[in-house]
Amino acid sequence: MAFLVLVQGYALVVEPLLSIAQGAAVALAVGLATAASAYVLEHRIAAWSARRATDETDARGDDGKSKS
Length: 68
Hints:
InterPro entries: DUF7981 (IPR058287). Keywords: Membrane, Transmembrane, Transmembrane helix. It is elongated and about 65 Å long. The longest helix is centred in the middle third of the chain and has 41 residues, at about 20-60. About 0% of the residues are buried. The chain has two helices and no strands. It has helices at about 1-15, 20-60. It is mainly α.
């Protein structure tokens, strides 16, 4: 994503590095890579988050019940 911002900034200041078709192809490639990364990492991040939440609850000795 940062690459697309840099290309756009350069195009505004100096001159376009890429044609519109090339820019669309780069944007599509970045979008596909982002979607693939999110798909692959989704389960790992969910498991890590659940494990972290369980560890924090156990460390505090919190049983999840109200103390009032």
